[in-house]
Design goal:
This protein has seven helices and twelve strands. It has helices spanning about 10-15, 65-70, 145-155, 160-175, 205-215, 220-235, 260-274; strands spanning about 25-30, 35, 45, 60, 75-80, 90, 100-105, 110-115, 125-140, 185, 195-200, 240-250. The protein is elongated and about 80 Å long. The structure holds zinc ion.
């Protein structure tokens, strides 16, 4: 099976088109507020009313975008394009109450948009941040528990001594410490958490691991551990788990509110050149 080459830890994670790609962002330049236009922003809301016997709930007409336009009457608005494949979040994908981030641009400047809700029943809020975000790998770890379990399972007929399992884990941990995550190939399978990404050990590390296994295992046992390593390397328990930290880098906004937009842009450009 041919795997994707790795050009960054979140490449395949981000590539998936998300529902939001259909949405459009509108920014009020004056207030720096954003509104996300969705196919649902005019859906009527049903307000359940406690009553007995039950009666149909009254329908409240909603026009969120109309409200946004009224609130920013006379202000300059612009449309922002969402940068595809830029979504990242700190919690599991299935977690409903969380903050996620993506990038959007007006063609001259790009922004980070924070999307969040405080409680599960709250509507989504979008906040514009001047700046960028960075993903930093904070650790690369082996899946110790899963490896030990798999070894016990696969070496059932002639069980490995606990000391050998421990020695193998110690060795693999040491090999992992020498790996550079930037040079590893990520697996295309999804992880349930966007800040946890799985990687395949590189060829050099594999050779080092096999060579050092000769100090722990002998004869037939060595052949079996070698076969185990080959089987588990690309999509099994020997995948390495990288943990990332999301860092939002805010930059001070030029005082564009009191200046014509052109002037503000020049200031931003001048700042970048410093
Ligand atoms: Zn405004």
């Amino acid at each position: 099976m041919e795997r994707e080459t790795n050009s960054g830890p979140f490449r395949s994670r981000f590539r998936k088109p998300r529902r939001t790609t259909m949405n459009r962002l509108v920014r009020c330049i004056h207030c720096d507020e954003v509104f996300c236009r969705t196919p649902f922003d005019r859906d009527p809301e049903y307000a359940p009313q406690p009553s007995f016997p039950p009666v149909p709930s009254p329908v409240i007409e909603r026009d969120d975008f109309g409200d946004f336009l009224r609130n920013h009457d006379g202000h300059r608005l612009e449309e922002l394009t969402i940068i595809q494949d830029s979504f990242v979040s700190e919690k599991d994908y299935v977690e409903p109450v969380k903050a996620s981030y993506f990038k959007a641009t007006n063609g001259r400047e790009s922004f980070v948009i924070k999307k969040f809700r405080k409680a599960i029943a709250d509507p989504l809020t979008y906040q514009l941040i001047h700046g960028d975000y960075r993903l930093e790998c904070i650790s690369l770890e082996i899946q110790s528990e899963a490896i030990a379990k798999q070894l016990r399972y696969e070496f059932k007929s002639i069980p490995l001594a606990a000391s050998k399992v421990e020695a193998f884990l110690r060795l693999y941990r040491r090999v992992a410490q020498g790996m550079d995550v930037e040079r590893l190939e990520r697996v295309s399978e999804e992880s349930s958490n966007p800040l946890q990404v799985y990687f395949i050990m590189d060829e050099v590390s594999l050779m080092f691991l096999l060579r050092n296994c000769r100090n722990i295992f002998e004869g037939q046992q060595y052949n079996e551990i070698e076969a185990f390593i080959q089987r588990q390397r690309e999509d099994g328990v020997l995948l390495l788990k990288a943990n990332y930290r999301l860092e939002i880098i805010e930059k001070a906004r030029a005082k564009s509110r009191t200046l014509p937009v052109g002037t503000a842009l020049k200031i931003e450009k001048a700042k970048e050149n410093i």
